[in-house]
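Re: that backbone. Tokens:
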């Protein structure tokens, strides 16, 4: 089991439902599933700035906010393009609007996921995209199988065609992650880690992509560049980890939490990988 160290509470700007995480030049980019901005945080000042994505106001009341939110669920660093992609879940028709910002944190343009989500609905009756990572010339999206169908999936797309809004034929691999206390583990994020991929998965006691449930446990895993799950280990947290990034220089990982409660801020946590994992990551 990996012990996690608390690094920062995401209070300035305030985020309670962190869902995606990217680290660029020592700055932590954090997206939330119920906000229309991205927070960019500095560890030294324990604070950050917010960058507006959509000029829309969301209701304060919980059920209305949930109904109207854009449900950003992942951040993907695009190194060659020097951009960061904001990925919506697609769990409802209202949740198909993404965006691109620069590495400097400047909003560039809205990006529609309608074309790819229309294609994915042919394969997944309940879309819920929760993670993404660039591998060579492909964009990998991670489908969270927390609905009735329990379909965890790895979706591989040609990145250039995707960014050009072309119709792409996805390569789909269904993945069984096992269960914790009888509750299926489902993807919540992924990140590039040296030559392989790290991913998060959570066992959340809910049979819906829309409704929240109790967290029964969570894991960190390594996935190979062919999409196979190499190994996993539990995380020592009762919170729901939803955003993940990896530091190649420090050989550690960071994650952010979402406790589905706007009374509490999300937390940025740090963890060290098991010693035996380091050989796997660089192999």
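Recovered sequence:
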């Amino acid at each position: 089991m990996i012990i996690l160290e608390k690094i920062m509470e995401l209070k300035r700007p305030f985020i309670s439902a962190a869902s995606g995480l990217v680290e660029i030049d020592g700055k932590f980019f954090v997206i939330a599933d119920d906000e229309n901005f991205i927070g960019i945080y500095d560890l030294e000042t324990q604070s950050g700035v917010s960058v507006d994505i959509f000029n829309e106001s969301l209701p304060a009341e919980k059920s209305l906010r949930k109904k109207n939110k854009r449900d950003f669920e992942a951040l993907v660093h695009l190194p060659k393009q020097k951009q960061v992609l904001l990925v919506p879940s697609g769990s409802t028709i209202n949740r198909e609007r993404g965006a691109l910002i620069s590495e400097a944190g400047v909003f560039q343009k809205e990006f529609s996921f309608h074309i790819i989500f229309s294609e994915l609905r042919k394969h997944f009756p309940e879309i819920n995209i929760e993670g993404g990572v660039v591998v060579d010339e492909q964009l990998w999206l991670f489908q969270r199988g927390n609905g009735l169908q329990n379909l965890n999936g790895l979706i591989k797309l040609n990145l250039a065609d995707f960014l050009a809004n072309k119709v792409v034929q996805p390569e789909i691999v269904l993945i069984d992650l096992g269960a914790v206390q009888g509750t299926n583990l489902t993807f919540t994020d992924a990140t590039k880690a040296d030559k392989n991929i790290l991913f998060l998965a959570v066992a959340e006691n809910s049979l819906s992509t829309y409704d929240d449930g109790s967290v029964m446990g969570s894991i960190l895993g390594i996935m190979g560049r062919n999409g196979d799950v190499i190994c996993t280990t539990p995380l020592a947290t009762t919170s729901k980890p939803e955003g993940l990034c990896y530091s190649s220089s420090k050989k550690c990982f960071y994650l952010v939490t979402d406790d589905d409660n706007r009374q509490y801020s999300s937390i940025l946590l740090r963890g060290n990988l098991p010693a035996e994992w380091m050989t796997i990551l660089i192999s």
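Residues 162 and 170 are 10 Å apart (CA to CA). The chain has four helices and 21 strands.
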